[in-house]
Structures are given as C-alpha cells and as structure tokens.
Amino acid sequence: MNHTADLYPAEIKSDIFHFFDLEEIYPGYRLLVNISTSIVSLVLFGHKQEVRVVAQRILTSSEIRILLPVLAFLPCCPQEVLQASYSCSYEVLIQALFSTNAKIIAQWDSLVQEHRLRLVDASQQKTRRRAMKGVYNALFALRQKLEHLGLTIRSRQDGFYLSPCVSGEP
Q1: Which residues pair with 81 in a beta bridge?
Q2: What is the three-class DSSP state of 95?
Q3: Is 74 left (phi over 0), alpha (psi -120 to 50) or beta?
Q4: Assign residue 146 a region: left if phi > 0, alpha if psi is -120 to 50, beta otherwise?
Q5: What residues contact residue 96 under an 8 Å CB cut-off, 6+ apart?
Q6: Do 57 and 148 form a contact (C-beta atoms < 8 A)?
C-alpha cells in the first residue's frame, strides 16, 4: 500500500484525528478527519501559522469507509480498494490504512486482491455494477457532503480520486 498523503496522527481525549494534505489539488488546505466520530473538516492554513476551519460535515459509516481510502491512496484509489474498505469492519480498515505492521498490511493486501478477483469475475459476468452497488450508493451520498467542502470524488478507468468542485473554493 503506497501512502502519498501526509498523515499526522494526534489523539485528544479518546478521539483520533488525521490530517490529509490537499496541497496538490487544493493549495493551502488540509482535510482533518476525526476517525472516532466521522467528522470531516476542511482546514485552511494561512500566513503566519493562521489556521481556520472553513467547513465541516458529519459522515455516515459507509461514507467514511469510502472517503478514507480515497484520501490514503492519493492520487487515485482503485475500485477493489473501495470494495474491500466497504466490506470489512471499520476497525480492520483503520488498522489497514494507518498501521505500519507488516502482518496487517499483508492481510489488507490479501483482502484487496480477493476483491480485485471478485470484480474481474463480476466484469466477465457483466454484473460489476451490481457488485459495486453499495460503494456507488455511498459515493453518491459522500459527493453531496463533500460539495459543501468544495471537493468531490470523480471516477476514471483505474479508480476514484479527490478533486476540487468546478465552482472553486468552499
């Protein structure tokens, strides 16, 4: 698993936060994700260390399961990763995305490979859309919430990626 996003874990009380750097797609901004409560905040880092929360949204369990891999697999998250993240437990997903433990990473890679094979099989049987229905439904709802943050998730042949909304800043 190749992480290209800068992750800064911090713990306040029992909440766990991660910063995802959006510099390449949204200069000056980072996404702060409260892993414990599924709250996503768009944060602007200004001049002289000035930090401002621009917008926040609360996500459902399904939406956070889709958003985290998209952020962790910048610039493009493969469909099989989203399918795996949608189908495994939230605890397994968090461990897989943020752990440096080789055993956990190997288990995650195996799960992703299993879903890759399932999606190849579904494509051959022309049932891929049905196999991805849960992921697509979560993506639809997530896109609506991300629009309030000035972001969206777009698709291409090899997966999904985070992008600024056409309208510009939030």
Answers
A1: none
A2: helix
A3: beta
A4: alpha
A5: 1, 85, 88, 104, 105, 107, 108, 111
A6: yes
Structure tokens at 54: 């621009």
Give the alpha-carbon dihedral of 62, 16, 40, 109, to 10 degrees. Answer: -50
Examine residue 75 and say whether the peptide bond preceding it is cis (omega within 30 degrees of 0): yes
The two three-digit tokens of residue 115, written as one number: 């879903």
Per-residue model confidence as pLDDT tens for the chain (170 residues): 433 344 445 545 578 889 999 998 888 899 999 999 999 999 998 777 788 999 999 999 999 999 999 999 988 999 999 999 999 999 999 999 998 999 999 999 999 999 999 999 999 999 999 999 999 999 999 999 999 999 999 999 889 999 998 765 55
Start-end of H helices in 10-59: none
Nearest 5 degrees, angle CA 45-CA 46-CA 51?
50
Q: Which uninterrupted H or E stretch holds 131? A: helix 128-131
Q: How far is CA 132 from the centre of its chain?
A: 16
